[in-house]
Specification:
By secondary structure, the chain is of the alpha/beta class. Helix content is 39%, strand content 16%. The chain has helices spanning 23-34, 50-61, 75-89, 104-116, 131-139, 160-166, 189-201, 242-245, 259-269, 278-287, 292-316, 341-352, 381-391, and strands at residues 37-38, 99-102, 122-127, 143-148, 150-152, 155-157, 171-177, 205-209, 235-240, 253-256, 319-321, 328-332, 354-355, 357-358, 372-376.
């Protein structure tokens, strides 16, 4: 290439070598190219509440947020986040010192890990994991130590002994995601209590990704780790508006935690996006104040969608691991006599016009999830019905 110096050194920072394009971008591009139904990437195909969208329009037209908003986020949103934590979980949060608004949960995760980790630190993370976790740990120069959630009796389970054994003298932080993407696992109160005891005993920081907090089903309940004894001052809690209100493109997320933790995260965040989504912050502040009936209806609708797609996947021949949270279903393709989930997902659009995501890319050891495939059910009912009809071709 003209103008470039010759060098044996690769252009890409070696910490990011091997990550490449995300699987979501790859599979979404495949869906567009083939005209397939995209059940791979987790975004809804309808917008959220009209009153929330109109709140954003009012903010735009009223000149609120069109210029740089305050670095920590607008006061109205920080106050609404604090009220949400108090109302739902009994967590008292100071909106001025213990809340930070971010460009979605993805930036919150990046800023937290970049702020709290040093090269040589170890991070214990549950796998399979959301792909940005691995990249952010790598960018911080730390080492990822996976603890694998394993399928048993139709669900994925955490081995607490394995978690304890993964902690060493170099462990700095536990990275916890519940409700868990991609498996749909919701950690129980007993499991969370054990994690909290371990964190206190070994003096560990904890970053919890709780973006699916309002999508729990059946007998599951979301319990923030910060509510357990000894965890208030060592936990960075992350959530966002995208999953709860179906406006994923707005990229409004947040961090809550003790002032010292939030200050540390803000120190990194200010050099990433600095600020973002000004007018949308006003809209999300109103969204968080929606009546409880909204959250109930949202959860009920997605439980129905889960059952619609899950029943269809079973009838098509998949082994289905029933999710208790999120809007994803993880399946196993071994029943088709196939073992390579990546090859299966690459061929699926041609076979039946549906796109899914291979879960193997979310493991350190791809063999651990080699035959697992994830489907998203955050789509219109008619789209899910059509996807099920197409997937049933596999059974033939």
């Amino acid at each position: 290439m003209a103008g470039m110096t010759s060098s044996a050194r690769p252009l890409l920072n070696r910490r990011l070598a091997g990550f490449g394009t995300t699987i979501f971008a790859e599979m979404s591009a495949l869906a567009l190219r083939t005209g397939s139904i995209n059940l791979g990437q987790g975004f809804p195909d309808t917008d959220g509440p009209e009153e929330v969208r109109e709140a954003a329009v009012r903010a735009l037209r009223g000149g609120r947020g069109n210029q740089y908003p305050p670095g920590p986020g607008i006061p109205e949103l920080r106050t609404a986040i604090a009220a949400h934590q108090q109302r739902r979980y009994g967590l008292s949060v100071d909106p001025d010192t213990e809340v930070l608004v971010t460009a979605g949960a993805t930036e919150a995760i990046a800023a937290s890990l970049l702020a709290l980790l040093e090269p040589g630190d170890e991070v214990v993370a549950l796998e399979p994991y959301y792909d940005s976790y691995a990249a952010c740990v790598a960018m911080a120069g730390a080492t990822r130590v996976p603890v694998t959630l394993r399928p048993r009796e139709g669900r994925f389970h955490l081995d607490l002994d394995e978690l304890r054994d993964a902690v060493t003298d170099r462990t700095r932080l536990l990275l916890v995601n519940t409700p868990h993407n991609p498996t749909g696992t919701v950690l129980t109160r007993e499991e969370l209590a054990a994690i909290a005891e371990l964190a206190v005993e070994r003096d560990l920081l904890v970053v919890t990704d709780e973006v699916y907090e309002h999508l729990v089903f059946d007998d599951a309940a979301h319990v923030p780790l910060a509510t357990f004894p000894g965890m208030r001052d060592r936990t960075v809690t992350i959530s966002s508006a995208g999953k709860t209100f179906s406006f994923t493109g707005w990229k409004v997320g947040w961090v809550t935690g003790a002032p010292e933790l939030v200050t540390a995260v803000r120190s990194a965040k200010q050099y990433l996006t600095y600020v973002s989504a000004g007018p949308f912050q006003y809209a999300v502040a109103e969204a968080l104040a929606l009546p409880e009936s909204y959250f109930d209806d949202f959860r009920t609708a997605h439980r129905r969608k889960r059952d619609l797609l899950g029943d269809g996947l079973r009838s098509a021949g998949f082994e289905v691991y029933q999710p208790r949270g999120t809007y994803f279903i993880t399946t196993d393709i071994a029943s088709f006599g196939e073992k390579d989930a990546y090859a299966f997902c690459r061929a699926l659009p041609e076979r039946c016009g549906v796109v899914a995501v291979p879960v193997s890319v979310f493991y350190d050891d791809p063999e651990a999830g080699r035959s697992q495939v994830r489907f998203a059910f955050c789509k219109r009912d008619d789209v899910l019905h059509e996807a099920v009809d197409r997937l049933r071709r596999l059974a033939a």
